[in-house]
Each structure stands twice: as structure tokens, then as C-alpha cells.
Specification:
Blueprint: E1 2-7, E2 11-15, E3 18-21, H1 27-38, E4 42-47, E5 60-64, H2 68-79, E6 84-87, E7 94-96, E8 115-117, H3 121-126, E9 134-141, H4 145-155, E10 160-165, E11 177-178, E12 180-184, E13 189-191, E14 195-196, H5 197-212
Parallel strand pairs: 1-4, 1-6, 4-5, 6-9, 9-10
Antiparallel strand pairs: 2-3, 7-8, 10-12, 11-14, 12-13
The structure holds cytidine-5'-triphosphate and calcium ion.
């Protein structure tokens, strides 16, 4: 079984010393890589910049990227051969329209940046998904959580979406714990307790493997 995982943030350069990015430690994606590998899968982890070391499990190959465009190129090259896609990365939604060749010097009291939308990696690959492939997405929401997560499931052709609510204490990017709800394309909803991210990864992997045994 081959698993493709995106993880961590992306950094979109503004000039040689600055970038736009998201808060993301990469812990959830790395924990998923470890858990899939422990279950015997061959894992390809495409990681944005994180402070985590490459996972040491021999079943995991880690490829480092910086930008959303690089993450997409790496994922696109591997997607067709993978049985499972897991989009755990916190991809920057926009990138600077122009990257300055030299450091932008401080001038004036305000600075306006022009940003352009990044490619949606999950949605773009979702259009190429074959019936036997299984796609997992994440949704971090602060309001109308389930509705937003379900619209992402449809828009990005996910089979399963992992919903994190920032309203749940102890959940999200600032914590080592997470409280998730799994929403599936067939309408199934599973609510989990607050737990360490390693155990959350096990819950997600168990659910994916259980579904895959019935899939297509
Ligand atoms: N995603 C992606 N490429 C992007 C943006 C998001 O692959 N350019 C993936 C994320 O890895 C995640 C899912 O899509 O699995 C949802 O990400 P999210 O940021 O919640 O969705 P957006 O469509 O960007 O919507 P918004 O940020 O406006 O809520
Ligand atoms: Ca986003």
C-alpha cells in the first residue's frame, strides 16, 4: 500500500529574507506518516518547512519543499501511483504576486502587498482521483464547522475529512492534543475525544484502512 502525505506549512517568498506562511508544526502529518508506516505502508511524506527531523521509519521517504507550487509538483508526480492521499499540509492560500530580487527596504508608514491565489493541491489532484484511490483532507474551522468541512469534502473530492474546531479547548496547531470529528462522503460522522496527536493519527489511520478494505 502506498500513501502520499502532505504536511507542514508552505512558505511563499516575498523577497530573499521574508515569506508569507501559516502556523503549522507538521506534527499531525508526521504522526500519520509514522502510523501508516507502522501498519506496513510505503509512505511518501512531502513536507513544508518544519523543525521536526525526518521520520526515521524505513518505510517513510521524506521530501522537503518550501512553496505551494513545489508541494504541488512533488505531490502530482506521486499521486497516480499512491493508493491513499492525505492532505495534512497547511498550504498558504495566497502568494506574493511578485518576488523581489533584493530585500524590500523599509519606506513609508504603510505597505500594501499584492497576493495571488495558490494552486489548491487537494482539489486539483481530486479531479484525477480514480475510484480505487482514497483521499483524506483536513478542515480547521472556527464557525459553521460541519457545513464548511462538508463543502470541502465535496469540492476537493475527499472520501473523508478530518474536522478540527478551534473552539475545542486543547485542539489545533498550538497543542500536542487534538479533538477531531471524521466526516465521510457517505454521510457518516464520528466524533472522537481530545487526545494526543499520536493517538489521533491512529484513529484516522484505522478508519482509513477499515474503509479501504470495503472501497471500490
Ligand atoms: N489544501 C491544499 N491546497 C491548498 C489549500 C488547501 O491541498 N492550496 C488542502 C489542505 O491540506 C486541507 C484541505 O485542503 O486538507 C482544506 O484546507 P483549508 O485551508 O481548510 O481549505 P481552503 O479550501 O483553503 O479554505 P479556507 O482556508 O478558505 O477555509
Ligand atoms: Ca486555506
Amino acid at each position: 500500500m502506498r500513501v502520499l502525505i502532505t504536511a507542514g506549512p508552505t512558505y511563499e517568498p516575498l523577497d530573499p529574507v521574508r515569506f508569507i506562511g501559516n502556523h503549522s508544526t507538521g506534527k499531525m502529518g508526521y504522526a500519520l506518516a509514522e502510523t501508516f508506516a507502522a501498519a506496513g505502508a510505503e509512505v511518501h511524506l512531502i513536507s513544508g518547512p518544519t523543525s521536526l527531523p525526518d521520520p526515521s521509519h524505513p518505510g517513510i521517504r521524506t521530501q522537503r519543499v518550501q512553496t505551494a507550487d513545489e508541494m504541488y509538483a512533488a505531490a502530482e508526480a506521486l499521486a497516480s501511483a499512491a493508493d491513499i492521499w492525505v492532505f495534512a499540509a497547511a498550504v498558504a492560500d495566497y502568494k506574493p504576486a511578485h518576488v523581489a530580487e533584493n530585500k524590500i527596504k523599509k519606506a513609508g508608514d504603510t505597505l500594501t502587498l499584492e497576493l495571488v491565489k495558490n494552486i489548491d493541491i487537494a482539489a486539483t489532484l481530486g479531479k484525477t482521483k480514480r475510484p480505487e484511490q482514497f483521499s483524506v483532507g483536513f478542515a480547521l474551522e472556527t464557525e459553521n464547522e460541519r457545513a464548511h468541512a462538508l463543502s470541502k469534502l465535496q469540492r476537493k473530492n475527499f472520501d473523508l475529512v478530518v474536522l478540527n474546531s478551534l473552539r475545542d479547548a486543547g485542539a489545533g496547531f498550538r497543542h500536542d492534543t487534538n479533538k477531531i470529528t471524521l466526516l465521510e462522503a457517505d454521510g457518516r460522522v464520528t466524533i472522537f475525544e481530545l487526545k494526543p496527536k499520536s493517538e489521533v493519527a491512529r484513529d484516522i489511520v484505522h478508519t482509513v484502512l477499515a474503509r479501504l478494505s470495503h472501497h471500490a
